[in-house]
């Protein structure tokens, strides 16, 4: 069955940390949303793949999405130059045939996040080429967006996630192996300041559009405006 939106993350908790609110909002409106984890997260300092798979499934249930799949690529081994990895993601895009793809942004410290950005970006284009050697009938998504992890000033689009904020937080907490301080050795994810940072970032993005919480995105290509009246909408704070 075709998906309306396909969300990609390098590891099982990446989507929740960057674009879980958008996924939840689209799902709440009745759209078919599919989450795709490129790796099983086996390279993390905490948790094992089987546990992380259970957590990912629970987080998907909380967000209300239709499906979550894992492509089983090597954690800490993602590479935009690996043709087999690229072909697998092309097949995934052709299988689900989404109108919208949400991918990791390129500006990130984790090499897997950077490589995932390039892999998904290339796959979205190559999936539309009839002769590209991957399974499935050609399909190119109409819209490609990049979910920001940091960099509030770089957001070209901000989604109001106030109404699904608690759901987003619960989906993140479902990944207990990564975020519960009692579940393993200390990491930056278990530092109390990490949760503060997440909320502060969402509040900054939210404040930029007059909302309590927001998620920031970069766009690939121009955004069409069919109704010019939408450009007249006021954003809180712009009249100061």
Name a few traits of the molecule:
single chain; 7 helices; alpha/beta; 240 residues; seven-stranded mixed beta sheet
List strands and helices in order, with pairings.
Blueprint: E1 5-9, H1 14-28, E2 33-39, H2 49-63, E3 67-73, H3 83-96, E4 100-104, H4 111-126, E5 143-147, E6 157-160, H5 165-173, H6 176-179, H7 192-207, E7 214-220
Parallel strand pairs: 1-2, 1-4, 2-3, 4-5
Antiparallel strand pairs: 5-7, 6-7
General description of the model:
The chain has one domain (about 5-225): LmbE-like (Rossmann fold), CATH 3.40.50.10320. Strands 3-2-1-4-5-7-6 form a seven-stranded mixed sheet, sandwiched between helices. It has seven helices and seven strands; from the N terminus they run E-H-E-H-E-H-E-H-E-E-H-H-H-E. The protein is of the alpha/beta class and about 240 residues long. The mean pLDDT is about 95. The chain starts with a strand and ends in a 20-residue tail after the last strand. It has helices at about 15-30, 50-65, 85-95, 110-125, 165-175, 175-180, 190-205; strands spanning about 5-10, 35-40, 65-75, 100-105, 145, 155-160, 215-220.
């Amino acid at each position: 069955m075709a998906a309306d939106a396909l969300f990609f993350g390098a590891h099982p908790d990446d989507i929740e940390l960057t674009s879980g609110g958008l996924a939840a909002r689209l799902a709440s409106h009745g759209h078919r949303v599919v989450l795709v984890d490129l790796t099983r997260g086996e390279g993390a300092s905490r948790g094992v793949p089987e546990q992380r798979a259970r957590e990912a499934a629970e987080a998907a249930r909380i967000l209300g999405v239709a499906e979550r799949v894992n492509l089983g690529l090597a954690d800490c081994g993602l590479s935009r130059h690996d043709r087999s990895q690229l072909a697998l993601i092309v097949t995934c895009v052709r299988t689900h045939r989404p109108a919208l793809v949400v991918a990791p942004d390129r500006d990130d410290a984790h090499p897997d996040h950077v490589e995932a950005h390039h892999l998904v970006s290339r796959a979205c284009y190559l999936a539309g080429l009839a002769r590209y050697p991957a399974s499935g009938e050609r399909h190119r998504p109409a819209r490609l967006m990049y979910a920001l992890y940091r960099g509030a000033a770089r957001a070209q689009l901000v989604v109001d996630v106030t109404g699904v904020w608690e759901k987003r937080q619960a989906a993140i907490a479902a990944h207990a192996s990564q975020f519960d301080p009692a579940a393993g050795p200390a990491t930056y994810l278990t530092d109390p300041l990490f949760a503060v940072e997440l909320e502060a970032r969402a509040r900054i993005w939210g404040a930029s559009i007059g909302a309590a919480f927001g998620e920031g995105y970069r766009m690939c290509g121009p955004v069409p405006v069919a109704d010019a009246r939408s450009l007249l909408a006021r954003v809180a704070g712009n009249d100061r």
